[in-house]
Amino acid sequence: MKGNEGEKSFVADCTIDYDFAFDDAMAAIGCTVYSFDPSMLDTADHKRGDRVFFKRIGISDKDDDHFVPRVDEYVQKRPAVNGWPMRRLQTILDLLGHRKEQLTVLKLDIEGYEWDVTRDLLDSGILSSVPQFLVEWHLFTDFPPRERVPDAVDTYFRLRDMGFQFFHFGRFFRRTPTSLIMQAQVAYLNTKRN
C-alpha cells in the first residue's frame, strides 16, 4: 500500500473503538493514517505516533455537532448525552487541510450508517478517486428502517457499477427470536482508479 516514490499514502479509518491495530499496521508500511471515532468520549484529539492521528469526530452524510445515534449495545456503553460531532468526508478533508491529497484507503465501520455515508460519497464523487474502500455493511432488524432498504440495495450496486470489485469478504449472522443482525466486512478495489 506504499505510494510511489515521493507520493504519500493517506488512510482514513472511521470508528475504531480503541483498536488501533489496523492504523498502526498501515503506519508501519509508510501510510499516514487519520483515525476517527466520536464515541471515544474519554479520548482527546492526539498524535498517536509519527504517522497516526486521532480525531474525536465521526463521518456522516451531513455536518452535525449534536448527532444522536441509534441506541444499540455499542452506544449504550458510550451514551451520546450531548450528541457526537459528525462531519461529511469532504468537510473532514478540508478541516485537516487534505482536500487535494489522495485518499488511498477509506475504512468504515459505522454500525448501519455506512449506507447513507456511502451514498453521500458516491453522490459527491469523492469515492471515485479512492483506490481501496473497506466497509462493514450492517443490516439490523430495525435499522436501516424498512423504507430505506431499497436505497441501501441501490447504494450497494452503485459501488459495483462505479468499478468497485471486492477482493475480500467476511460475513456474520446472529439471530434471536426477536432480532436479526447481519454484517459483512467487504474490501473493495476501485478498478477504474487503479
Automatic annotation (TrEMBL):
All residue ranges annotated as the Methyltransferase domain in the record: 16-168
InterPro entries: Methyltranfer_dom, METTL24
Highest taxon above the source species: Eukaryota
Name of this protein: Methyltransferase domain-containing protein
